[in-house]
């Protein structure tokens, strides 16, 4: 049995069931006792709603007490129950966010001129906003409060106070707009770099590129008064420095000012805001290294990952033992790049258990293959590599490139040649890998092929020229290639 009502009931989370039952049983929302019975019977089959006893005929009899099934009546009952049940969704924002409910009440108190209640609730809302962990909607909540205050004063012709409140409303409006605009722009940039999706014609791009963020900073720095160093200004300035660093990847000063402000404010953020900003910090470093070849910042990348570990922002959401797989992978690779064997071993020992069970074994072997490579235990590294089963496109390129490196170290040159061919074909046919990664891996294949040819007797290969080409781009593969060329030159 399946219908629109069951589809709705399946969408309910277990912790919402008591609230939903109260909703259905309330005569304010539902006056039809048959609907109450119908919902109650259906919830006996939650969450799968798959049972041989779950039939329209049996439900009809239990709900109406009649044995003769009437499909038209049953369908009408289902339709009405679905309509009433869907109303529960309207209440969810008020259940999840008490500020949403508070603002609605505040407007009612204002409209009904219940001033004492209004002022008491306004103070409570101010305390909630100032004491709560900060999230991306911080300025939106302050804006909503400012709007309510202006309406309250206008309705009571308190014009002397209105100017101050209008200024406050204007500030919160601008702060919220700028912050959300930066947030939106950053999401587009991330998606562009990950999936080759361009948003160049979006209004967000045009606005960001035409805002003079230096003027915003200058305005904040030149402003006077007791609120000059307030949390609000520092919070917005943090985002301004972030977008300046994102717009100009050579602007290291803005990056470190963003980081400094972030770390000064982070203890006031909720988990989502901590996580989002540490990811932004990480993305900036990755962009600087990948697109501007800023190899001096590789250790800074590991420092950012250590901040994620320190603040516990490495999980998907706030769930335990749900370490983000991509973050886990990146920490392994950065540790590998800077040859920090001690940290890599520490990380694997401490955090592998934090990976969800379905990925844990794969990520353990993935980490161990790089650790054993650093320990020059290439046979063991290959054994771990062969135990990794991963379908994500990033892992496919990682495993193919490290496989070539392992076989080179083992002297398996024929195997390496065959793997080069399959790697090249993978890059040609894959539409998952973004342009940057395709280019990096094609370069690695090209330079690796030259190195193998030299090792197998083609002395016409110009190692000096090859070394100069490799130095044009930073990657873990190119670091390794440079080391191998140096070994050949030194006769090792």
Could you name the key traits of this structure?
492 residues, mainly alpha, 4 domains, 25 helices, 0% strand
In words, what does this structure look like?
It is a single chain. This protein has 492 residues and is mainly α. It folds into four domains: 4-94, no CATH class; 97-186, no CATH class; 314-389, no CATH class; 391-492, no CATH class. The protein has 25 helices and no strands. It has helices at residues 4-11, 17-25, 33-43, 56-64, 71-86, 88-96, 98-111, 115-131, 138-155, 159-195, 203-210, 213-222, 231-247, 252-265, 271-292, 298-311, 325-337, 341-351, 357-374, 378-385, 393-409, 413-429, 435-455, 463-470, 476-489. Helix 10 (159-195) packs across helix 11 (203-210). The longest helix is centred in the middle third of the chain and has 37 residues, at 159-195. It is flat, with a radius of gyration of 30 Å. The model has no long low-confidence stretch (mean pLDDT 89).
């Amino acid at each position: 049995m399946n219908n629109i009502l069951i589809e709705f009931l399946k969408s309910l989370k277990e912790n919402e069931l008591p609230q939903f039952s109260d909703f259905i049983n309330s005569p304010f929302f539902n006056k039809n006792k048959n609907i109450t019975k119908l919902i109650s019977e259906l919830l006996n089959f939650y969450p799968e709603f798959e049972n041989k006893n779950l039939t329209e005929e049996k439900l009809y009899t239990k709900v109406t007490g009649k044995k003769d099934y009437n499909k038209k009546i049953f369908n009408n009952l289902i339709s009405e129950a679905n309509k009433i049940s869907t109303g529960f969704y309207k209440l969810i924002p008020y259940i999840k966010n008490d500020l949403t409910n508070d603002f609605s009440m505040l407007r009612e108190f204002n409209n009904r001129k219940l001033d004492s209640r209004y002022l008491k609730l306004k103070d409570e809302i101010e305390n909630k906003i100032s004491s709560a962990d900060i999230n991306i909607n911080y300025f939106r909540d302050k804006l909503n409060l400012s709007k309510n205050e202006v309406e309250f004063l206008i309705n009571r012709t308190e014009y002397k106070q209105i100017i101050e409140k209008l200024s406050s409303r204007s500030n919160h409006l601008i702060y919220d707009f700028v912050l959300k605009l930066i947030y939106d722009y950053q999401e587009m940039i991330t998606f562009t770099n990950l999936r080759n999706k361009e948003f160049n014609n979006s209004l967000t791009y045009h606005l960001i590129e035409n805002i003079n963020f230096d003027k915003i900073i200058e305005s904040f720095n030149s402003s006077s008064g007791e609120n000059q160093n307030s949390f609000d200004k520092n919070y917005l300035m943090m985002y301004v420095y972030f977008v300046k660093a994102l717009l100009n990847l050579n602007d290291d000063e803005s990056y470190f000012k963003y980081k400094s402000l972030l770390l000064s404010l982070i203890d006031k953020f909720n988990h989502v805001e901590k996580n989002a900003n540490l990811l932004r910090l990480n993305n900036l470093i990755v962009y600087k290294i990948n697109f501007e070849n800023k190899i001096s910042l590789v250790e800074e990348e590991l420092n950012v990952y250590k901040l994620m570990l320190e603040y516990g922002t490495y999980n998907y959401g706030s769930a335990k033992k749900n370490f983000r797989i991509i973050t886990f992978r990146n920490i392994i690779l950065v540790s590998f790049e800077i040859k920090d064997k001690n940290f890599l071993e520490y990380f694997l020992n401490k955090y592998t258990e934090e990976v969800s069970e379905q990925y844990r074994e794969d990520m353990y072997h993935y980490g161990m293959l790089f650790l054993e490579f650093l320990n020059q235990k290439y046979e063991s590294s290959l054994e771990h590599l062969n135990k990794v089963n991963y379908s994500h496109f990033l892992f496919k390129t990682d495993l193919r490139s490290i496989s070539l490196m392992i076989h080179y170290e083992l002297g398996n040159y024929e195997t390496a040649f065959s793997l080069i061919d399959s790697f090249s074909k993978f890059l040609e046919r894959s539409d998952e890998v973004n342009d940057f990664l395709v280019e990096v891996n094609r370069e690695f294949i090209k330079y690796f092929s030259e190195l193998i040819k030299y090792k197998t007797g083609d002395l016409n290969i110009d190692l000096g020229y090859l070394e100069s080409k490799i130095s044009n781009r930073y990657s873990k593969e190119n670091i390794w290639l440079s080391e191998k060329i140096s070994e050949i030159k030194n006769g090792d």
